[in-house]
Amino acid sequence: MPMRKLMLEALVYLAWARFLKMLPFAKVSPTLGSYMEETSYDLNRDQKWQGVQVSRALHRVSGHVFWETECMVMGMAAMKMLARRKVPSTLYLGMRRNRAGKVAAHAWVRSGAFYVTGAEEIEQYTVVGKFAKN
Question: In this protein, which residues make up the domain named Microcin J25-processing protein McjB C-terminal (predicted)?
């Protein structure tokens, strides 16, 4: 799929995910996948390429929209785009305390061994939830 079309799709799913983020998490979480399960680290070559392309499209588009596209929004959009392509992925939710003692949260998506979104600083977070979509 040409990058332009993929970027348009990313725009649509980023908007959709931003809307979902405004809803109570208890309503959204059943749509994210199988709770506390993970997908395989083994993907075929095409699935790996799809994950890279989805990641590129989301990162290119996210900086050019007027709404917030932080980690959870990016993660939900990535999961939806990968699911459309039948590429397995896992959304991770993590927590940590910063130096001031305040709690910080982060979300990231892994497809195979590739981190599609949110890979920055994940080692600082303790996984408190995960959702697998095969």
Answer: 11-128
pTM, 2 dp: 0.93
**Phi and psi, residue 91, nearest 5°:** -95, 125
* 75-107 tens-digit pLDDT: 999 999 999 999 999 999 999 998 888 999 999
